[in-house]
Write a structure and sequence with these properties.
The complex is a heterodimer. Chain A is mostly beta strands. Chain A has strands spanning 2-3, 10-11, 16-22, 25-30, 35-40, 55-59. The longest helix of chain B is centred in the last third of the chain and has 31 residues, at 280-310. The chains are: A mainly beta, B mainly alpha. The A-B interface holds A 14, 22-25, 27-30, 32, 50-51 and B 198, 200, 328, 331-332, 335, 339, 343-344, 346, 348-349, 352.
Chain lengths: 61, 379
């Protein structure tokens, strides 16, 4: 897994925020909303489970 | 003395003098397969030995496929005895996690729909005048599974082995190009954007252990002629799931599978002698194989649409395309295609269910077909 954003960064909806490797394929994870990244809950190259929280976005108004 | 020297040296150009146009063409075909494997990364593990075997067998006077030739020895030992595809199957079983299917048994249906191409192509080949046994071997390209195709063809139409296996393996690697247009043609944009919920049902260890045993016994009783295929893939899977024989599981999935892939590839290449391979029949077989895989995809997606309707729009019909045996390529295609229309759509694990079901489906379809044909007295 590769994290493509950093805390404090402003992002737009549908920006690619994380690249996750699964089944030998890189799967892009896109932002569900625009806003500011306030917290990143995962570490690069660590495994995650389904439904794990990956990062927190403070939605823009 | 001088004459003896001249005669001796003329031996060095005998190979060139015996080279026929068919051999030259096939050496170029071998070169093209090597190019696709090495430069384009299309199934290199198979295309490199196949391409090289093809070049070897088309060099005149070496007699590599004559009795006692080294390629003939490998071919007789592993292809004619059906051992190579079966050993590969143990490895496939040892590599494949069937839990996405067990989590959502509905995907079994998609894995079955993805096999329809086999039967439609069989009918088409019969209509085109191929003999019954040849038609069976051509239809099996629709299983989209190299070892299954080689197993069936080596038994019933060994003279078609080169054409059938080259078709099976090349179309498998072309899945990312063949499938998307069919998927788009058969679905509406609304259907393609359906987001499927993730389920976190876990499958118990007992279920995962019982699954290969039950499939082997029940499947074997229904289709005894296909038991070698089913039995080997399920033995591999039982070893994987039991966790008790890690060394055997690893050896089957790695060392044994690698060695056998090399020997299998080179023996398949060895069947591509210009005299046998360069016939219109080969082109027709390549064409029919292409149709088979298109039909598999279409049937899978159409069943996906039925599930979309019956589930009130909860199933994305695109996952139907993954009901074939090209694993996990086909599931990746579905994931990518779904994300093209809705970036927040992650269909991968649903498609993996259909894909794993397609893996079993192709083996069961081949087994059932062999047993039905046996019952009809055709084989």
């Amino acid at each position: 897994m590769k994290i493509l954003v950093s805390v404090g960064e402003e992002i737009n909806e549908d920006d690619e925020v994380i690249k996750m490797e699964s089944m030998k394929m890189e799967n892009p994870i896109y932002a569900p909303a625009s806003g500011k990244v306030t917290e990143i809950m995962v570490q690069e190259n660590k495994e995650v489970e389904a439904d794990d929280l990956l990062l927190v976005i403070e939605a823009a108004d | 003395m001088l004459e003896a020297f001249v005669n001796g040296f003329s031996g060095l150009i005998a190979g060139f003098l015996h080279l026929q146009a068919a051999n030259v063409i096939m050496i170029m075909v071998g070169g093209a397969l090597l190019y696709l494997g090495i430069k384009k990364d299309f199934e290199p593990l198979l295309l490199v030995p196949i391409g090289f075997g093809c070049i070897l067998v088309n060099i005149p006077l070496a007699d590599l496929m004559e009795p006692h030739g080294f390629l003939r020895t490998i071919y007789d030992a592993g292809i004619m005895t059906e051992l190579f595809p079966l050993l590969i199957f143990i490895g496939i079983g040892a590599m494949t996690d069937f839990s996405p299917v067990l989590e959502n048994p509905l995907t079994f249906l998609l894995g079955a729909a993805g096999q329809f191409g086999i039967f439609l192509t069989l009918a088409l080949a019969l209509a085109l005048g191929f003999s019954k046994l040849d038609a069976v071997s051509i239809g099996i390209i629709g299983a989209c599974d190299g070892p299954t195709a080689i197993y069936v063809t080596s038994q019933y139409a060994p003279h078609l082995l080169g054409a059938v296996s080259v078709a099976a393996y090349s179309y498998m690697s072309l899945v990312p190009i063949i499938q998307p247009p069919i998927m788009r043609f058969l679905t509406t944009e609304k259907e393609r954007t359906v987001v499927m919920k993730t389920s976190r049902k876990s499958v118990s260890k007992t279920t995962r252990l019982l699954f290969p045993l039950i499939i082997t016994v029940v499947g074997g009783l229904i289709a005894p002629k296909g038991l070698p295929l089913l039995g080997t893939i399920m033995l591999g899977n039982l070893m994987l799931e039991s966790g008790a024989v890690e060394r055997l599981t690893k050896a089957s999935a790695n060392e044994i599978a690698n060695v056998v892939t090399l020997l299998l590839g080179i023996s398949i290449g060895a069947t591509m002698d210009g005299k046998v391979f360069l016939q219109t029949q080969t082109l027709i077989i390549l064409g029919l194989g292409f149709i088979a895989i298109c039909l598999d995809t279409a049937c899978g997606v159409l069943l996906g649409k039925v599930l979309y309707l019956t589930s009130n729009g909860k199933v994305n019909p695109l996952i139907g395309a993954a009901g074939i045996s090209a694993f996990p390529m086909s599931a990746r295609v579905v994931m990518k295609e779904g994300q093209k229309y809705n970036k927040k759509n992650y269909l991968l694990m649903h498609a993996m269910g259909a894909n794993a079901a397609g893996q079993i489906g192709s083996v069961i379809a081949a087994a059932v077909m062999l047993s039905v044909l046996k019952g009809m007295g055709i084989i």
